Amino acid sequence: MVKRRIIQFASALLYNINLVGFARGTIYTGRTKGLCVPGLNCHSCPGAIAACPLGSFQTALGDIRTKLPLYIMGILVLFGVLLGRAICAFLCPFGLVQDLLNKIPSPKLRKSKVTRWLSLSKYAILIIFVIFLPLYFMWINGISEPAFCKYLCPMGTLQAGIPLVLANESLRAITGVLFQWRLIWLGIIIIASVFVFRPFCRFLCPLGAIYSLFNKYALFGIKVNEEHCTGCHACTRSCKLDAQKINDRECIRCGDCRPACKHKAIVYRKKGSKNEK
């Protein structure tokens, strides 16, 4: 847990190392902005030195009439094949935010069949807000609109909207209903994170939905040693997420279940190593 937390903080700092941007209220536009980080991290954040994969994908859809978004699709596949949803556990700044908020003492919502079914909603958001709506707006207006970033991404408000508005008087003068909605939506996610473990990751995040498609086959991450496993399911019972099996679509491969396994069957191992399933 300690090592994972260190990696989470380190990756969040690395993604947003342009700290002077927060003081100036400006957006970094250097060469590295053409690259994508693996986690959910707003490219408009004053500190961000690279782009968000979801934002880049939606932007690329705006050019789909003339070229396919092969670069960003390749990046998402590469991240997925290498790590799957381990990115959610180790390399996503908003995952860290939710983890810390859930540490606040409060009644916690327990996982159930209902939360398992609700976890499917992030696939609907992926299809509707990340793929369909940008293409729809491009079709009717000639200009694509990054619908997820504009209406539902909490990191856009937390990392970019709030810091930029606070630092720029001109932006404060033109904030309207959309910015108010985004503040309300961010507040809902923050409050929910106190009572529900990683609500955005579980129910809403389309990036997690994409990475989940590769979870079973990702090269690096948590594995089960078949010779030691007794099938007692102590690992999934201890999991705060809606995973029913190690490396299923809801497992974020964090390894927090390892202490629950009395047989030490859960290990970090490269795909293809001996005695894994």
Give an overview of the whole structure.
43% of the residues are buried. Helix 6 packs across helix 12. The protein is an all-alpha fold. The radius of gyration is 19 Å and the shape is globular. Strands 1-2 form a two-stranded antiparallel sheet.
What's this, in brief?
This protein is mainly alpha-helical and 277 residues long.
By secondary-structure content and strand pairing, the structural class works out as mainly alpha
User: How many whole angstroms does the radius of gyration measure?
Assistant: 19 Å
Strand residues, percent: under 5%
Low-confidence stretches: none
* Main sheet attributes: strand count, strand direction, barrel closure: 2 strands, antiparallel
Helix content: 40-55%
Per the principal axes of the C-alpha atoms, what is the gross shape? globular
Distance between the termini: 24 Å
Average per-residue pLDDT, rounded, comes to: 92
Using DSSP, what is the number of strands?
A: 2
The helix-strand sequence is HHHHHHHHHHHHHHEHE
For the biggest β-sheet, the strand order reads: 1-2
Number of helices: 15
